[in-house]
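[stage:ingest] chain + small molecule (zinc ion)
[stage:ingest] validated
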Amino acid sequence: MISSSIEKPLPTPTPTSRRFWEAACEKVLAIQRCSNCDRHIFYPRNRCPHCWSDRLDWVTASGDARLATFSVIHKPGHPAFAEETPYVVALVDLVEGPRMLTNLRVPIDLIQIGMLLIVSWEERGDFTLPVFRMKDETDGGSPA
Ligand SMILES: [Zn+2]
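[stage:predict] done
[stage:export] C-alpha cells:
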C-alpha cells in the first residue's frame, strides 16, 4: 500500500518532557505534582501554572479519566493517518485533575461525554503512546 510508506510522526521529547516519555515506555502514566500547591499538572512544565513554583515532582497517575469532549476525524491532518479514519481525538480529564489531549479507542456509537475511561498503551516506533479506552468492571479500582 502506498500509505504504509508514509511514517507517522513521533513525539519529540524535550528535557522537560523526557521523563513522561520514558515512563510511557514502561506503560506508566507520569504526570507532575506541585509540592507547593499540591495540584497535579499536565503537560510537563518547568513551573506550576497555578502558583509558579518550580517545586514539581513526578508521580504516577491512576490512568482513570472521564471524557470531556471529542472530535471524530474524517480528514486526517497528516497523510500517515489516512487509513485510520475515522478516528477520535479527545480531551480527557484525569481523576488527578489535568486535562489531556489523546486518542480514544472506543467505538464511535458508544462514545458519551463524561464516560469513564482508562489509559491504554500503543507502541509506535521507539515510543509508547497513551490512548484511552472504556473502563469496565474488569479494570478494578474505583471510579472518580
Ligand atoms: Zn503549584
